[in-house]
Amino acid sequence: MPSYALHLTHLDLTMGRGEGELTVAHSGTAPLTAYPVTITDSAPTLAADVEAEHRTAVAGALSALGFTHAENWRPPS
Q1: What contacts 49, CB < 8 A, 6 or more positions away?
Q2: Residue in 67, 68, 40, 35 with CA at minimum distance from that of residue 54
């Protein structure tokens, strides 16, 4: 199971916008993978090639911070 770190470099709660980076630590000796994260209208956006479980991790982290509601965020199909 991967571990995640979400580093937000900018967050504007009033406007529902932000940006940062999601770092994924895979098991074993696999290298870390980093993905840029953009938040618009309180919803995270990641590149199309980011796996669904990583998208869910971002939504959950933002929800835990009180920024978004994970149940209202749906990853693209």
Answers
A1: none
A2: 35
On the question of pLDDT at 74 being above 70, the answer is no
Between β-strands 17-25 and 3-12, what pairing exists: parallel, antiparallel or unpaired?
antiparallel
List of E strands, the chain? 3-12, 17-25, 33-40, 43-45
Q: Residue type at 21?
A: E
Structure tokens at 37: 């994260």
Between CA 77 and CA 67 the distance in angstroms is 23
Per-residue pLDDT tens for 46-60? 888 888 888 888 888
Beta strands 43-45 and 3-12 are unpaired
